[in-house]
Amino acid sequence: MLDFTEASLKKVLTRYNVALEKAMTPEDAAEEIYPKDELIYPIAKAIFEGEEDDVIEGLQAAMDAGKDPISLIDDALMVGMGVVTKLYDEGVIFLPNVMMSADAMLNGIEFCKENSETAHETKGTVVCHVAEGDVHDIGKNIVTALLRANGYDVVDLGRDVPVDEVIAAVIANKPLMVTGTALMTTTMYAFKEVNDKLLEKGIKIPFACGGGAVNQDFVSQYALGVYGEEAADAPKIADAIIAGTTDIVALREKFHKH
Amino acid sequence: MAAKRYTSMAYASADEMTFGVSKYPVKAGLDLEIGAGYTIPEVNYAPRPEAGASKEKLVKEYERITTDIMSRMVQVGFPAVILETEHVQQMSNNPSWGAEVAHAQKTIMEEYHDEYGIKCALRHTIGDIRENRDFLQLRGDKYSVFLEAFEECAKAGADLLSVESMGGKEVFDYAVLRNDIAGMLYAIGCLGSIDMEMIWSDIAAIAKKTGTVAAGDTDCAQANTAMFIGGGLLDKNLAHTLAILARAISAPRSLVAYEAGAKGPGKDCGYENIIVKAITGMPMTQEGKTSTCAHSDVMGNLIMQCCDCWSNESVEYHGEFGGTTVQCWSETLAYDCALMNTALETKNDKVLRDLLMLSDRYRDPQSYVLAYDNAYRVGQAIVKDGDNIYLRAKNAAVECCNIVSEGAAGKLALSRFETKALADAKATLDALPSDMDKFMDDCLTKYKSEVKVFLPENYGF
């Protein structure tokens, strides 16, 4: 069978992921940025490792030591998740790590809420849905996990969501933005209807769209559309809105890559 | 009909396999014989979004698409073509819509066949509509509509019947985002195979009744999801060593269609088809460098190595400088086929096969395992326990790990991350039980609790 020499192989392809791999292991990188507080550290580490039982154990220990359960959401769980999302954004860890950490974090948040009568304030609310007629929801599931991991409250409408249900959820929840995902060209047409009905109601919030067949040109055709090429763009768009960039044109300028 | 399991390989060695030639060619459509010594372009397309507004608009759109492709094939002098219509959901939910489209397309194809003698066939890929907003409903009310869509399209002119079925996807989507190799094995290898046996027994019966060809399935819903999430070299969403494990596990799952009566050609996006061809000897469609209009992959040349039909996956219908998209992509596919057919006619097919294979062999662990010699080994691991859907899927995964490890000891470069993901997966696989019932029971308990959309009754449990 034909084969390359090592030298000839290099003239045909380069595995850039190997050539450019960072020297530091994910565990070492996380260790450098964990909070130093001895009660918070084990919680943050358990979040990074996606160990749900250890998260609860750490939270219980912190509460026993007098920490306020609701404060622990921001001061421990979100800090631990911050380590995870930072390393994900830097390309040190991969998405499954984020998903497992997010599961552990959400579990921890529920535990904190059960142990307190005070409400927890999030960074804001985002309404997420999969286009009407489309049942492919893995992309939406990634988007919702990443938004929650970044401290947002998510109203997850699920898949194959009728346009009117999206509008009703926006009116009821007053989100800072709506997300829509779709795999198929024929279903993403529903995004235009969502856009038009939002405008009819006088609602002018960003409508972040992405998914398999969705592209920047299509999303740019409707007034509220902001294209997200990656699921990881969703929390970044939300962060930009919170930071004051609410104008659609400005958001497109920032996030449209093509 | 009960599935007849494969317990041996169709080919005595990997080197016997090449493009355009299969052990069991398939006659279909208007004078086509697939896998009978020549490769055939298979063009796939999607209507523009606004075309789904009504049946009339959809039919008109597909008439334009069909005419564009057939005319371009004739204009540039290509002898054969297959058209694949992947249903938009309206066409499968309303079987009469799909049937009208099939009839309209076939009428045009017959006109071209009558006038120019161009050999052609029409594949209709029915949408897997067996779900509602909240759950997969694999055995629910929609199953009869699903089968009706096959039958109506077959009666109206479709020659090749396919689907990208979804069995196991609810568990897979959960598992793949959590590096859960046991969950992937359960979802694809067990749940997927159980569902495949049910639907393909019924589809094969419809094909027999209508004089059409039950062509095959692809694990698009799972293995391609893994490949898509895995993405390119710099993407950070899934280790490519896990993506190829999902692919290896998908081969025994896609094999079930042929065990239940399908004849090929297997559908384009089944990158596992090279393994399936090694086991069954049936013709397969593949896609790679000519499907960049739909998605990127890391084996664009390699995957052409043993194809019988060569596809572009899907392209939205609209205008380009060189004509409409379907004209441009059909011409590209057909030129590729002309090159392969020239190699076949001049007895240079194995040289070209090996050049295609080698150019991507070390690009990625995914391409390394799907190189025809390694794919053949995965096939051997599957048929070793061919009668047991769990063990053969586990065997495929273990052999995949072995192949990648051997490659990494040579010229296949892996990142530390890919190496660790592989080692973790191998350790998990080694710890799995050898008893299928125990594995199934353990998984049923675990995923019933962890995956809220998993309904065991979908699989007859």
UniProtKB/TrEMBL annotation, chain A:
Source species, domain of life: Archaea
Annotated B12-binding N-terminal domain residues: 30-124
Domain B12-binding intervals: 123-248
Keywords of the record: Cobalt, Metal-binding
Metal-binding found in the keyword field: yes
Pfam families assigned: B12-binding, B12-binding_2
Record keyword Metal-binding present: yes
Annotated family: Belongs to the methylamine corrinoid protein family.
Protein name, per record: Methanol--corrinoid protein MtaC
Record lineage: Archaea, Methanobacteriati, Methanobacteriota, Stenosarchaea group, Methanomicrobia
